[in-house]
Amino acid sequence: MKKYYITILLVLVAMMGWAQVNSTTSLLGSWSGKLNVGAVSLTLVLHLEQGDGYVIASFDSPDQGAKGISAYKEFLSDDSLALKVEHIGMTYRARLKDDTLDGTFTQNGTSLPLVLTRGVPEVKRPQTPKGPYPYATEEVMFPNAADFATLVGTLTWPVGYDKNSKQKPTVVLMVTGSGQQNRDEELMQHKPFLVIADYLARHGIATLRYDDRATGASVGGEVKNATSEDFARDAAAGLEYLRNTKAFSKVGLLGHSEGGLIAFMLAAKKQTDFIVSLAGPGVKGDTLLAAQGNRILSLSGMPADMTVEKYRQQDAVQQMPWLKWYIDYDPSADIAATRCPVFALNGDRDCQVISSQNLTAIERLLPKSKQHLIKEYPGLNHLFQHCTTGLVTEYSEIEETISPEVLSDIANWINSLK
What we know:
Order of helices and strands: EEEEEEEEEEEHEEHEHEHHHHHEHEH
Shape: globular
Low-confidence stretches: 2-21
Helix content: 10-25%
Largest sheet: 9 strands, mixed
Structural class: alpha+beta
Radius of gyration: 23 Å
Mean pLDDT: 92
């Protein structure tokens, strides 16, 4: 559940437009700093770029995955600026002092100090694979004819794969969490699906990861009014494509967050040989989201007073078809109807899909089998990173993309099914 956490101050929207206050400024370049909001701090980056006779101003909020939030220039000189992003009720006013921008950030009546220094923070992602790779990959596409969508992704073959061998590898279809994401499930410069695919390839397992409908190289398919049922048809089309190649012994599905929900939906229909549910929901949507809200409120130093009733009364619930469908969806029946092997895992510091609530429900509902593995990982967040609080705002600060123990457990469990 990446899409619906409580957003602090900045939201992922952009408003185009700028004013020609002056043609240039000595402040050109990128500036960055930390906005402290109680127990939470957000990295903000200001870009001032030279256009054709004017200066373009924009903000990034990398901790929230927001880039290119265009700003209107109320005033800009060589030592001062006043910027506004009207659509989100935000302003930033600052003056140059000792080569830093000493200013005030204001949004919807709340004012906070914000000091920016020149440059952009270096982002380290040591687990991101770098070529050349010891395995083969290929770009593939498959249709979801029912939804007029064509999905495009990367099929990764395991190390040492020989297409002429009689021994066929296991393959895993990878399904992202909520929100439109690319095939790497890229978030804040982390690429968890790329990391998982690389690790599995090095341990004898093939994968197919694809761009979500109408995202990246994938085209077509309704998005605005789409729900998890629509996205499940995309995943089902991917499973069908993999089976039709006749190149694999087993065809499984690995889903993260909403992808874990979709994994159980398709497993209940006997469309997959096994599933890996990474922080997948185990309780009804409104119950999950109320608990999510309370965990985030509590860690942010605010009263944890969210209830299912209060959550349902929010305007956003009625305005977003995905959310309106999700709060009414109860995965219990699909989990109970799942007969294939299941590896369900969660981090105990996950703020978005609370482990004690959801993993417990999955274990209770799932028919007993010696092949199942239900595991909670201490100290891990929703992305399965080692973390301090589990809050979304930590994701970008953590260099680790995914716990090595989780990677090892996934590969070992899948290989145990052979």
